[in-house]
User: Fold this.
Amino acid sequence: MPNIAFINGKWTSLSSAKISIEDRGFQFGDGVYEVIRTYGKACFELKEHLTRLERSANAIEIALPYQAEILEKIIQFGCRKSRFKDTMIYIQLTRGTAPRGHAYPKKKRSTLVMTFRESKPVSEEIRKKGVSIISTEDIRWARCYVKSLNLLPNVLAREAAKRAEAFEAIFIREGHVMEGAGSNLFAVFGDKIVTPSLGPYILSGITREIILRLGRENGLTMVEGSLPLDDLYVADELFLTGTTIEVLPVICLNQKPVGSTKPGDVTLSLFNIFQDYVS
Ligand code: PDD
Assistant:
């Protein structure tokens, strides 16, 4: 089962895929990305991911080299070619290759790279037990709705989580929760399920949007609002959402127990609703 890559129109094995060291993605993080997964042969919410990719690219004035419909076909072809049961697709679009200089180069030729690898789910053991998270100061820029390649604060936050033997780090700004280094956070208070409202410091997660919609369709009270860090300690349940983790229960925050320290009923029910939607 090959890991494969697509670079500006050419298919290659992942191990032999190469781009120039003068690519602006490499030198400046001057680009945007998406992570998409398949369930079997079907790409999950492909249109939504490509719409977000286009929105991110527009925000930093990079043109997509293909129309979304063509890109969809290329991605579907890649999934068939890689022949994994479930595929993880990484798309990276940069401002292309040019001699180093901060301002945009005159010649506009973006680099589009896509990789196709096996998608590995969160283990049953972790999912059943729930995960620990830590909080960390949000030191990111004010356009976190752009899925930019500049992930240094997220890298540092995730490493801090790893060193604390936690699964995820949650960014806190002026005492309020924003999102995880690579996920969105929800908190359950009685019959209310709260997630931070969209804004400059939050990525509109595709999974976040689906959970909000499915929750509402199933009669749950889904609230987008402000979420103080202090409130998390008295929440009944916490859970993370994201493409790779789906709906993941949190049982510990900064080494303090969350709720009953077991995955909660609301989280499990939303996980099951999500699984029904997927299938
Ligand atoms: N991360 N917030 C941030 C900062 C993210 O990086 C992600 C996704 C999410 C969740 O978005 P979605 O539900 O669309 O996956 C929220 C991807 C998976 C990553 O960087 O690997």
